[in-house]
Amino acid sequence: VLELRDIFDGGGVPIDHYIIQVDNGTQLETPGPTYSFDIMYNTTLSVNISAHNCAGYSDPLPLEIKYHQGGVYWLIMILPNTTLNRL
User: Fold this and answer.
1) How far apart are CA 16 and CA 39, in angstroms?
2) Is the dihedral of CA 22, 23, 27, 29 positive or negative?
3) What does pLDDT average to over the chain?
4) How far is CA 42 from the centre of its chain?
């Protein structure tokens, strides 16, 4: 499970939605600024996540991403329009 959450400090425009694209070409637009989704990590090589504000522009604020696998949470701080590659 990947959990996405906008880290909004009042210094920018809050994120309205994310667009998530995995390496098999599947694309998903999330319904809101906080979202969790399942990822088949054993078969997925990369995930590209772009964050958009209500005007549709990509937001430069960092995202907080939690990756949950087997009871372990990995907390990753990245910027939008970043691709997460499997190590």
Assistant:
1) 22
2) positive
3) 60
4) 18
**Measured distance CA(22)–CA(28) in Å, rounded:** 9
Structural domain of 56: 2-85
Q: Does residue 34 have a pLDDT over 70? A: no
The total of structural domains in the chain comes to 1
Long-range contacts of 54-59 (CB under 8 A, 24+ apart): 54/13, 54/16, 55/13, 57/13, 59/6, 59/12, 59/13, 59/14, 59/15
Q: Which residues pair with 75 in a beta bridge?
A: 66
In angstroms and rounded to an integer, the radius of gyration of the C-alpha atoms of the chain is 12
Q: Could you tell me which residues come within 8 angstroms of residue 55 by beta carbon, excluding any fewer than 6 positions away?
A: 13
In angstroms, the Cα distances linking 13 to 52, 60, 68, 70 are 9, 9, 28, 34
pTM of the predicted protein model: 0.48
The residue with greater pLDDT, 10 or 4, is 4
